[in-house]
What we know:
single chain, Rossmann fold, 2 domains, six-stranded parallel beta sheet, 8 strands, globular, disordered N terminus
Amino acid sequence: MLNRFLRLAVVAAILIAFAPPARAQSASLQGYGIVLMHGKLFWPGAFVGDLIAALRAEGAVVATPEMPWSKSRMYDAGYEQAMTEIAAAVARLKAQGAEKIVVAGHSMGANAAIGYAARHGGGLAAVMALSPGHLPETPEMREYTREAVARAKALIAAGKGDEPARFPDRAQGWPYFVTATPRVYLSLFDPDGPAAIPKNAAAMPPVPFLWLVGRSDPIHPRGPGYAYERAAKHPKSRYLEVDAAHVGAPNAARAQLVEWLKSL
């Protein structure tokens, strides 16, 4: 009986010694650092909580900075300052050991992700535009902000560019007013300015680029020709549609987004 037990113990030890190492459950995106920006009027992590959890479960480090269009900040800085804040978030991720940097965002955060890639995309592992929003260059927004943009330019010319004033804004068709300096407002709403998505997409270097849109999102009818196809071609880029609305698309597509990143 003892000899039989010893033989079984030896066999078990051999099997354990030569068994392949167990794959860490959260190793798939280890080394990835992801800056994930929120949309207009919201807060860090808004409407992307399930996606963040899925990314972290795979080993990614996710940063969710509060951007100048958050509910509490609301245009306290302009578009180029937002680029500086993204760069700072990227630097913090690198300091934490991230080797592959992804810049991503939801709604206006997607606009900023594309804008950042247009300026610093050469060092990025990927860009993810999730339910892109804030489209100052579209005919609808040009008409809606025409007088306000002209007034902002006139105030700047008069030396009042840093004095807060009241200006119109719109989020997913909902109109409202904001208080911002003319200089900041113009940086965000000038249809020919730095926040125009198609222009920024066209300036991106070849980098894996994912554009996610819900089929019930107002931007959906614009199709890939609006901005996605203007970006430099990359074999890993993807235009992804899901059955969701503007707010729900990122969480609805979380599995596809994780798998896409793992495929890079």
